[in-house]
Amino acid sequence: MTPISGGSAVPARSGFAGRRITVAGLGVSGESAARALAGLGAEVTVVDGGDGERQRTTAAELAAAGVETRLGDGATLPKGTELVVTSPGWRPDSPLFAAAAANSVEVVGDVEIAWRLRGLNGERPAPWLAVTGTNGKTTTVRMLAAVLEAAGLRTAAVGNIGDPIIDAVLADPPYDVLAVELSSYQLHWAPSVRPHSGAVLNLAPDHLDWHGSMAAYAAAKGRVYEGNEVACVYNAADPATEALVREADVVAGCRAVGFTLGTPGLSQLGVVDGILADRAFVPDRREQAQELAEITDVDPPAPHNIANALAAAALARAYGVPPHAVRDGLRAFRPDPHRVERVAEVGGVTYVDDSKATNPHAAAASLAAYDPVVWIAGGLAKGATFDDLVATAAGRLRGVVLIGADRGLIAEALTRHAPDVPVVDLDRTDTGAMAAAVREATRLARPGDTVLMAPACASMDMFTNYNVRGDVFAAAVHVLAAGQDEQ
Predict the structure, then answer these.
(1) 83-86 and 20-24 as β-strands: parallel, antiparallel, unpaired?
(2) pLDDT tens digits for 336-384?
(3) C-alpha to C-alpha distance for 128 and 209, rounded to whole angstroms
(4) Strand, helix or coil at 279?
(5) What distance in Å separates the CA atoms of residue 140 and residue 170, rounded to the nearest whole number?
(6) Could you give the 3-state DSSP secondary structure of residue 218?
(7) Is the dihedral of CA 98, 99, 103, 104 positive or negative?
(8) Which has the closest alpha carbon to 58: 81, 85, 35, 89?
(9) Judging by beta carbons within 10 Å of its beta carbon (0-12, 13-18, 19+), is residue 425 exposed, middle or buried?
(10) 156-179 confidence digits (pLDDT tens)
């Protein structure tokens, strides 16, 4: 880590009044940015390539706030634009941004705008405790928010988690501190953000079609450490995250703090005899460790979720949260649906929904929590490969049921690395495919096994999103359970 002289300046006023600003995208973050900037006196135009009922409805609502909207073919750079604010999904090579570059127009994201608006009401700006990583971001941020609340702090989980960060920054009364989830997209477009403390949970290939390379993806993630004041939190089991800490420019005195599932070393949080222990934020790190919580306080107590809890605890402790609040917050936390969610036990077999496992790295973490397991997998691979995943999980697999457009890629990996594992290849994408997958998985399973739906792929080949995929899986399991009860 390279020390820098201090944090960024807090603006005394917005500086947006009278500026011609183009907002790219009419989603949740785009609408939030447009409303906020218009309210600050900017001349705002929103452009969106879609022209459906949702876009038209939102455009009509924004018109009442003085915001112009251009849909469909009109999603080009308006003449006179002085600043472009993009939604996370817009690719850097979009023609709109090429036009902006040609006209020397700055392009930033809504997270950057939120950062520039901090302190607008004259209050001390709420510090940001920021989390990024390939997997586990949402769970960790929600755990962090629960811990901060347990400490009596007014907080919110914002950013990539769903709640617009601009709204949180402008909230009245202001928040004490914000738990911020940041995607690689958002960090790419947020050059000025300087969190109080930040964490990179893990790094694995993802979104490479957007970033262009693993190096660019990692560099975007590493921005979460820029300007950190107290702690750069890294995963001791993932050297790439620690390397990002070394490359970061931080405020003098900021420390590198690791988390590990093993016994914690100096300046680390870890696990000792089932206890989450802190050797980073104690008076004597060489001789002392502070008990924070027990593994059983974490729901579910799967290894990757314990790692999430440790990262959340590290950020909370960096902010000065007492140990009892870590314990109370973790006890109060309940995971979102479709994240290693136990659906039911039928005939001695446990059925688990991890539809949120949309890439191999996430699926590997889920598979590591169960043994033996019947694995339901497949969908859109997004350019991912599956050899490492299958080779690591092979010894745990009772059987595999494959669904979705790119299931053949997983089948090939299974042939190479788990040739003796029974595989059912379901060549169908109709609405009954998931129910068929559950039936086949049940046939392969034995009492004591877990049927795990952790697809390692995106869902859009068969379902609207991963939530719908998880709902359909759970519905099929409940039908199975009802049939068992009737026998």
Answers:
(1) parallel
(2) 889 889 999 999 999 999 999 999 989 998 999 899 999 999 999 988 8
(3) 29
(4) coil
(5) 24
(6) helix
(7) negative
(8) 35
(9) middle
(10) 999 998 778 999 999 989 999 999
